Amino acid sequence: MEQAEIVEQPVVTRLNPALGAEITGIDLSLPMHPEQIRAFRGALDNYGVLCFRDQKLTEQQQIAFTEQWGLLEDFPEENKTVSASTVYNVANVSAQGEHLPETDHRVIFQKVNALWHTDSSYRYVPAYASLLYGIEVMPDDAVGGRTGFSNMVLAYEALPDDLKSRIEPLHMVHSYEHGRRMFASLPPLSNFEKNAVPPVSHPLVRVHPDGRRSLFMTANAGNEISGMPLEEGQALHRQLVEHVSRPEFCYFHKWKKGDLVVWDNRTTLHKAEVYDMGRYRRVFRRTTLAGEGPVLGPYSQEVVARAKCPSVK
Ligand SMILES: [Fe+2]
Asked: What CATH number has the domain bearing residue 243?
């Protein structure tokens, strides 16, 4: 692929003290120089969420931009995507342009995402980052419909020491089927889907290659903590969900048409703010970057080995 010269340095502006940056002055439909992608990766490490304004991206251009970062995830679900299997349509509008009723399971499915979560946490290797492009957005004066983000590094650091010690050895169970438990009107998973994404568990405390720690949890793919009695674990889960919702960790993004928002699924949670789905049309297109390895916790062998041998990065 021909690489564009970097003629203009994009402008990066912090959006919120907790997380998020806005990036202007770059056209993502053009091929990127590898240095530019490296700079975006660094910015995502720093800010957790990047909003590229004023983009005009066809589906193929969004896929091409995403592929320059790394491997894309395929979606395990049947009948949730149109065209490429690496594209996920987050919309209350059908592929034919029909505004779907709130009873349609494709719309109900989005309500599952109104709870804090990190994408693909139900996989053994969860996603690295998600890229969501605003095609049809709500008017500026509409209420709701923002996407909330919460910084899990800050949330972890703010926990009291006794709670940090308590959760250090624990894992959380993540299950794609959990949404079906909460919304009984959703169609059951097919046998294909059940086998594609069986329940998994991940450490509740995630240790990153640079040594940072963060909470790694979900409210839409589970509420069970392994390693403790069921009800005690669910109470701890409720406490942590309340904790990550604290305003000082959060940024709520109000969408403009042409925004491409990229978030780091390793260090942030997100959720869809409720809105009047019967009144407003909303169409987003998501591509997702696959994770680069399983979630490592304080007791994971790789982390322990790294700690014993500091020269190993
Ligand atoms: Fe999501």
From this structure: 3.60.130.10
Count of domains observed in the chain: 1
CA distance 158 to 164: 9
Spacing, Cα 297 to ligand 1 middle (Å)? 22
What is the Å distance from ligand 1's center to 64 Cα?
A: 21
Ligand 1 centroid distance, CA of 308 (Å) = 36
Q: How far is the CA of 110 from the centre of ligand 1 (A)?
A: 9
Distance CA 223, CA 193 (A): 21
> How far is ligand 1, taken at its centre, from the CA of residue 120, in Å?
8
Q: Where is pLDDT greater, at 215 or 107?
A: 215
Q: pTM higher than 0.85 for the full model?
A: yes
User: What is the rounded average pLDDT for all residues in the chain?
Assistant: 90
pLDDT tens digits, one per residue of 148-165 = 999 999 999 999 999 999
Q: Is residue 2 part of a domain?
A: no
Q: Residue 32, Cβ neighbours under 10 Å: how many?
A: 21
